[in-house]
Amino acid sequence: MTPGFFNHLMLICQFEIKRLFSTRKGLLYLITFAIVWYFILIYPIRFASDFLSQRQNTSHGMSFFEFIGFDSLLNWEIPEFSVYWHFSLVIFPMLSIMSCSDQTCSDRERGTLRFLTLRVSRDSLFFGRFAGMMVIHTLLIFTTLFTTLAFAIYREANLVPAAFNSAMAIIVNLILVLLPFTAMMAALSATVKSPRQATVWAILIWSFLAGIISLLSSYLPALDSLIILIPGYQMSELSQLAEWQTLQLAHIPILQTIVLLVIGRWIMLRQSL
What we know:
Elements: H1 3-22, H2 24-55, H3 59-67, H4 79-99, H5 105-110, H6 112-116, H7 122-155, H8 160-189, H9 195-217, H10 235-238, H11 251-270
């Protein structure tokens, strides 16, 4: 890796962020996300957190959540973050699949990828787009978490120290969760011809590959270990943890990201432009 590689990577990453705020498509994406998040914040998070805060201090309330299978909601000290954590484990991976599907495929089909690679290396382009997408996701996580934090502090001002601790735990873990999804989309975008194909393949991988591996592993148990390579397979276990306990599973998305980026880079270097 040369100094020029990192300079180009940073420039491409900055360009992706600027494109989000300066293009019609990027602004439409932000407005749509803001509207959807507003309704999620006002209805599910606010109402569920009010319901949780009323019941979590009573044995009857705890029995109720254990009965319906949502006792993990009580693991968090702040109800707003408990609900946010469970929603974000579904919303942000899906958001990553949809928004990161066009990292390189459209440029390759239009022929602009060939033009770009005359000025920067394929590695800089591949990793720069990946880094740009992750920075954008991080900004969205900060924004949504800040609004949830404001709700929690408005309800009870003395929650500030605990709220910031929980918020930091969520930020770190959501970034880790999204890393393999963004890496998967980078690899798929380098493989297929359109963002739609990348999205379809990602949904198929996420939805059905785990079931196929489980079925095949009943005949060949050695294949069962392959399930660790599927982004998000640890989600159900992760949702049962709270605060910094969630870092117990941090090695899984890190391993997945490394493997997917290596595969994506290999495809990018060998793919015709």
